[in-house]
Specification:
The protein is of the alpha+beta class and 781 residues long. 47% of the residues lie in helices and 17% in strands. The strands form 5 sheets. A 7-stranded mixed beta sheet has the order 14-26-25-24-15-22-23, with helices on both faces. Strand 22, helix 22 and strand 23 form a beta-alpha-beta unit. Helix 7 packs parallel to helix 27 and helix 17 packs across helix 18. The longest helix has 35 residues. It is elongated, with a radius of gyration of 33 Å.
Length: 781
């Protein structure tokens, strides 16, 4: 079963998927958390991974049918340059412990401020920076900061070095050590001039403060995933054969078990209502704000909330087979995917640290070996910028400016620019009942120029009904067949909405042989007429185009066709051995707000098309109701013709999105640059789609495309900021215009700017006239 087959549970037995909790060491930023997640998900048998930077924890979900290969996961994390070990405890309990100032980055912040603030007061307020006794006090205060708080950076840099890589820890360790090492040398040798213990301590403290804030803010970007992980309850009331109830862990439930749900209970697994009536809040899964009414035979999904009645549930899916598990897998896959635009940042980040180290070395050599030339260049630029105050000593200038270059150059912003925007965008979409397959789909959705709608179940309600049928007599004046009975029997085995509408005409079945569904056209089978012993007649029920191509003369039904096509009805013909026996008109109403949705999409500059297997008159009538130009309608289109139509648009330079819901739409969904499957879409359509809309409202289409456009814009803004920051910051630091303290502050701010810009996506809203600026909201989105 594909990961995108969200709401149709499997009927096979599936044991609950095991979950393993890991404590991960060495993560210093959101970029590190992303690398850990990628390493874990690259191990065979892993269904998904969620890494919490602020807690130093990772939740590994194993595939239901696979083997939990924990040693392979631990090895993969170590190979990536981090440490990991298994820990006891549920993911639902994470983050609920008592607050402590000595956990995670908080220790670095508290201890670092305790050592750095007295140094800042002494130098900047009291003017004690050049006093010999204060130098020794500064050494005593900075040493614990360097050793205890800097240990996390040193460990991270060493692990990356052993793994054959380098990261931000490498630059921070080199930068702070350079400032501290020079100051220790000058203190013990008695070299004159300013010492930089305060700068060394401030570098570690400010960067730790930035990481602490970054960990807290980046956790918001994955808030929807964490909320989904906490939806399913841990315990359930299993009903025993004697009618008694036993409270058991939800992971022990199996298919066909009976579960009792009282008001206020969360549904532990997927299943069908056996008895009782209630309303259920499904908003977290589908984005629907109104509770859904549930009666016997209706489906229930894990994680939803039973509101006001008692229900008896018969389990149909557990563990990895539940709709909630599929949604979690889809969100995890999207958050850990890479967009094409990310390749530029990845290529730069791969060589960034070695280049920065080389630039820092060159800066140190320049200030140390050619100090006069360096000062002249710095003073010349100071007339256009601001005064630079390089150290008086050439040796001090060499060390301090080299340290500034190391500190200002932060590869995290480049590494985070795309993934944090994708994470925020996919989470914002998930809150609205929109599942995006991956970062590539998100990127493509932001570049769509034309959108093609299927008709039945997409623009229309998908609940058609037969409004009129007509029987045509044979040559002797007697009806050739019982039209309604035969048509209902032919249609009953098909799952198409129009077929199901015809099947409801007559409750009883008739014996058919050689039944076959011709995709996109109709159904056919053989039937003995009037109980005769002659050869069975070939009965066909389907589109008028198909019947014409099969040699059926439709002249007798022309008036019926013209009348009901003009009213937007779908016309079906019934033929017996090549002779027209009857016609049926099926009408499906336009979805509420469909015309407004089309108008919104057109306001965004998209060309809207309608393709359908229906006849041209009906297709044009629906198009006029929806506000789609009639020249943009393709009628009587088979599945392969829908795909061909999309290829023709692409050949003209269009980037096409297709919105559909049925098996017939799978070729078009695959062919389109972006495939969008609407609520209740078939498994095949969902497997082919890039975006799945769990909402039933068609308004989710412009919402999904609008959110994708804003996410793509945010990615570009983040990449621009990350590159501009380094392009401007490194030369300024090398020329002495930025002190190491300012560099440390700027480096932390660069990450926060990128993350904060991405978090605006969580507050984004769409309007009928265009995209609104983000606004603060409360409650469930």
């Amino acid at each position: 079963m594909g990961a995108t087959q969200i709401m149709d549970a499997t009927s096979a037995q599936n044991p609950p998927s095991p979950v393993t909790e890991l404590a991960v060491g060495g993560m210093t930023c959101a970029n590190c958390a992303r690398h850990v997640s990628e390493a874990i998900q690259g191990v065979p048998g892993v269904a998904g991974a969620s890494v919490r930077l602020d807690e130093g924890r990772a939740t590994v979900r194993w595939r239901a049918q696979g083997t939990a290969n924990l040693p392979a996961v631990l090895a993969a994390v170590r190979k990536a340059g981090y440490e990991a070990r298994e820990v006891e405890g549920s993911k639902l309990e994470d983050g609920n412990g008592e607050w402590s100032p000595l956990t995670g980055w908080r220790f670095n912040v508290v201890a670092g401020l305790a050592g750095t603030l007295p140094l800042m007061i002494g130098e900047w307020v009291l003017g004690l920076g050049m006093q010999p006794w204060f130098h020794w006090l500064a050494f005593a205060l900075a040493l614990p900061v360097q050793v205890l708080c800097g240990a996390r950076f040193y460990h991270g840099a060493w692990r990356q070095l052993k793994a054959g890589g380098s990261n931000m820890d490498t630059l921070v360790s080199l930068g702070s050590t350079t400032a501290f090492g020079y100051s220790v040398w000058a203190l013990f040798t008695g070299a004159p001039g300013h010492l930089y213990f305060m700068e060394a301590a401030a570098i570690i403290t400010l960067i730790s403060l930035g990481h602490w804030v970054e960990a807290r803010t980046s956790a918001r970007a994955e808030s929807s995933l964490q909320a989904l992980l906490r939806l399913a309850p841990q315990m359930a009331r299993r009903r025993n054969p004697d009618g008694s109830e036993t409270e058991v862990p939800a992971r022990e439930l199996r298919e066909n078990d009976a579960v009792t749900l009282r008001p206020g209970d969360q549904v532990p697994v997927d299943g069908d209502v056996e008895q009782g009536e209630s309303t259920v809040d499904e908003s977290m899964l589908t984005g629907e704000s109104n509770p859904a009414e549930k009666r016997p035979g209706d489906k229930l999904y894990a994680g939803t909330l039973n509101l006001n009645g008692q229900l008896w549930l018969r389990v149909t899916a557990t563990g990895e087979a539940t709709a909630l598990a599929h949604i979690i897998a889809a969100v995890e896959r999207a958050q850990n995917s890479r967009a094409e635009i990310q390749r530029l940042g990845d290529r730069v980040s791969a060589v960034f640290v070695p280049i920065v180290v080389a630039l820092a070395l060159a800066t140190g050599l320049w200030w140390g070996l050619a100090p006069e030339q360096a000062r002249q260049v710095s003073e010349g630029l100071a007339r256009h910028l601001w005064p630079a105050m390089p150290p008086a000593s050439a040796v001090a200038a060499a060390f301090i400016h080299a340290a500034a270059v190391l500190i200002i150059a932060c590869p995290c912003a480049m590494g985070l620019a795309t993934p944090v925007a994708i994470m925020a965008g996919t989470n914002a979409a998930a809150r609205r009942g929109i599942l995006i397959r991956d970062g590539v789909a998100l990127e493509r959705a932001g570049r769509i120029t034309c959108l093609i709608f299927d008709k039945t179940g997409t623009l229309t309600q998908g609940k058609p009904a037969v409004v009129k049928h007509e029987i045509y007599e044979s040559a002797n004046g007697r009806p050739a067949v019982d039209t309604t009975r035969i048509a209902a029997a032919l249609a009953r085995r098909s799952s198409h909405p129009v077929s199901q509408a015809v099947a409801r005409l007559y409750p009883d079945d008739v014996p058919l042989s050689d039944w076959e569904e011709v995709r996109g056209s109709g159904v056919q089978a053989r039937l003995r007429l009037d109980g005769s012993q002659s050869a069975p007649a070939m009965m066909r029920l389907g589109s008028l185009r198909w019947l014409r191509e099969s040699g059926v003369n439709l002249e007798q039904g022309r008036a019926f066709e013209e009348k009901w096509s003009a009213q937007g009805g779908t016309l079906l013909g019934l033929a017996a051995d090549g002779r027209l026996a009857g016609m049926l008109a099926v009408k499906d109403t336009l979805k509420p707000g469909a015309a407004e949705v089309v108008r919104q999409l057109q306001n965004h500059g998209l060309k809207i098309y309608l393709v359908t297997g229906d006849n041209p008159l009906t297709a044009r009538a629906i198009a006029r109701q929806a506000g789609i130009p009639v020249e943009n309608v393709l009628a009587e289109a088979r599945p392969e013709e829908k795909a061909r139509f999309i290829r023709e648009l692409q050949a003209k330079g269009g980037r096409a999105a297709f919105v559909g819901d049925g098996i017939n739409d799978a070729p078009a969904l695959e062919t389109a640059d972006l495939g969008i499957a609407v609520s209740r879409a078939s498994d095949v359509a969902r497997e082919a789609a890039d975006i799945i809309l769990l909402k039933s409202e068609i308004q989710a289409v412009p919402e999904a495309l609008g959110l994708a456009r804003v996410t793509l814009r945010t990615i570009k803004q983040n990449l621009f900021w990350a590159f501009f920051y380094n392009i401007a910051g490194i030369p300024l630091a090398a020329l002495g215009f930025l002190s190491p303290i300012l560099c440390a502050l700027a480096m932390g701010l660069s990450d926060l700017v990128v993350i904060g810009n991405a978090l605006r996506l969580l507050r984004w809203r769409v309007s009928s006239s265009g995209e609104k600026a983000p606004r603060v909201t409360t409650g469930q989105d």
